[in-house]
Amino acid sequence: MRASSPTRIKSTASLPETEERSSWIVSLHHPSALHNLEQIISASRGKQIVMFLDYDGTLSPIVQDPDRAFMSREMREVVKDVARYFPTAIVTGRCRDKVYSFVRLAELYYAGSHGMDIKAPSKHSKCHRMIQGNKTVIFQAGTEFLPMINEVYKVLVNKTSSIPGAKVENNKFCLSVHFRCVEEKRWAALAEQVKEVLSAYPQLKLTQGRKVFEIRPTIKWDKGKALEFLLESLGYANSNDILPVYIGDDQTDEDAFKVLRDRGQGFGILVSKVAKKTNAAYSLQEPSEVKEFLRQLVVEWKRLSSLQGGQYIGRAHM
């Protein structure tokens, strides 16, 4: 439970266990996206960059209280600038409405509940064909599970109340049981409580993230499926003229990294200070590096695009 996401890579290196050693191992296994920005820019030549961003641990730091995972004003400005030039989506395990209250940028796509609840920008013409009437919700998976999710939420709140620090979060289409504030000696007891509750609900599955248990319907949908759906909704399903970039820090982001690797298109970027088994091609160590990478990416895109009359890499989306 301590090394919750993704699996760490074991190393026999004789370097001491220091932050410098961790950084060295990360750069060895997962080259820095910042240090290899020129390579990423080169790969995007003549293509439309499409940006996918996890929230917790990527755009905001991991904090003790999940209700206070606020992104900085500077990060919001950088993401807003990214969305001016590239179609941009937030893909998170959080409730879509909750993450929108943190980000507060209407021009983005939001895929909440691990991609089971997707909403497009209200004025994005390419997605209007997938919207009925004036509604901007373009996809919701597993709506039949909502009553069950609400029922299990109430049971878990009651069941886990005996463990100080445990927090159950209702993300609408899934649930999160946070144990970051739980004493380590109580982790196993909390896990048993969660498993006991779920034993009565075989239609729900349990996975683990960064000091959080994730409870989702047993349907074949995840962040990777959400990425594919969003590319299709943008008209890029079979396009060779795009470069999808997905940045995330959690085990659930591996589904999206794997999709990009299997497609042989675009890059996954893992946010981590330690080396971990991953399908991502590059790494960034923390949200501050994510902010700098996004900032430099836009700067380079604008510079090279202006040099080539807007034809060098990508193109601003409508």
From TrEMBL:
One of its GO terms (molecular function) is trehalose-phosphatase activity. It comes from the Eukaryota. Pathway: Glycan biosynthesis; trehalose biosynthesis. InterPro entries: HAD-SF_hydro_IIB, OTSB-like, Trehalose_PPase. GO terms for biological process: trehalose biosynthetic process. It catalyses: alpha,alpha-trehalose 6-phosphate + H2O = alpha,alpha-trehalose + phosphate. The keyword Lyase does not apply. Its cofactor is a divalent metal cation. The keyword Hydrolase applies. Its EC number is 3.1.3.12. Pfam families: Trehalose_PPase (PF02358). CDD domains: HAD_TPP. Keywords: Hydrolase, Stress response. Removes the phosphate from trehalose 6-phosphate to produce free trehalose. Trehalose accumulation in plant may improve abiotic stress tolerance. PANTHER family: TREHALOSE 6-PHOSPHATE PHOSPHATASE (PTHR43768), TREHALOSE-PHOSPHATE PHOSPHATASE C-RELATED (PTHR43768:SF32). Belongs to the trehalose phosphatase family. This is Trehalose 6-phosphate phosphatase. The lineage of its organism: Eukaryota, Viridiplantae, Streptophyta, Embryophyta, Tracheophyta.
